[in-house]
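Box 3.1 A note on notation
Throughout this textbook, protein chains are presented in two layers. The first layer is the amino acid sequence; the second is a token string describing backbone geometry. Keep the layers aligned when reading.
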Amino acid sequence: MKESKEGWQRQRYTATERRQWIERYRQSGLTQARFAQEHGLNHGTLVQWLCKARKESGERKSEAGGFIEMKLPAAKVCEG
């Protein structure tokens, strides 16, 4: 946040700056919370940026928690 005559004012970021922050986060290997803390960003703001970027790119989170269904060939049963 920036300080103004009236006190603290919200920092505004351009679309380019937001993309740069997202790229830095993705390359950092840190959790979202840790990255935001280390760089003076609001964690909720970073989460919003990431969600918006994901939607704009067409990227989706897996609805099954990261798992995908796999079809396996039928097991052969030995009779005898």
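Residues 2-57 form one domain. The two ends are 76 Å apart (CA to CA).
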